[in-house]
Amino acid sequence: MLLFFVASCASALPPNFSTKEIKFVSEGVSLSGTIFTPNNVQAAVVIVHGSGQEKRMIDFATTLANNGIAVLTYDKRGVGESAGVYAGPEVGTNNVDFSNLNLLSLDASAAVNTLSKYLQNNKIPIGLIGGSQAGWIIPLAAEKNKKVKFMTIFSGALITVKEQLRFQFYTNGNKNFWDTHSEEEARKHVFNDPDKYEFIDTNPNDVLSKLSIPGIWIFGGKDIQVPVKLSIEYLDILKSKGKHYEYRLFPNLGHNTAFSDDEEPMKDAINWMKNIDKLKNHK
């Protein structure tokens, strides 16, 4: 049974986990976070942020911890109690430039090392979980850190950053986009539109083709920020080359698959992570 955190009932339900406030250093910067340790740890994850000024994700971590998954969630650099400089679109920076995505992946890798030290059982598999922009950051972090044993990605693009931006500018926030546009039209814009911004691009497939750890992607069929069918095609190519990558598609959901009213995406992700040791390619 999947347990979700409900604020109004929190006082009535004793938590199945303990928490500890921590600090760790990444690239010379002190980052602040919280470690959630379930009474019965079955897997462990570091939550990787999407874009925006994101603090530690307490509700998300609580859901995971109540289901036996240890968590380290932290304030993004330059946000909340974390030091450093925040790079984001709100302050006019190219937060999707490779240099920033790579820096954030170093933060995630440092968080993995920190969580590893706090786990009493060194056989507990540690992974990375996150959504949206984290879909580019997580593979970069996994490539850097051999302690990372799996990846759980909600609505992460398997196309380059520039291609994703072309798609996002084309859909222009229209929730009914797929009612009036075809897959062929969308792909034409993804591959041919001029770029509005110049920055060093990132292709997640370059890294994903090198990794040997398992991963799962969870998509919403009505996503207007990530071209899902195209991303799944790239996943299928990687799978055909022996990569242990899986995906779940929820046709009626949009980009926010992790926190939608539908509990099934999170339930699938949690069940998959709790059974990670059974995957043949797990190392």
Automatic annotation (TrEMBL):
SUPFAM superfamilies: alpha/beta-Hydrolases (SSF53474). It comes from the Bacteria. The keyword Hydrolase applies. Residues 40-165 form the Serine aminopeptidase S33 domain. It holds the Pfam family Hydrolase_4. Keywords: Hydrolase. GO terms for molecular function: hydrolase activity. This is Alpha/beta hydrolase.
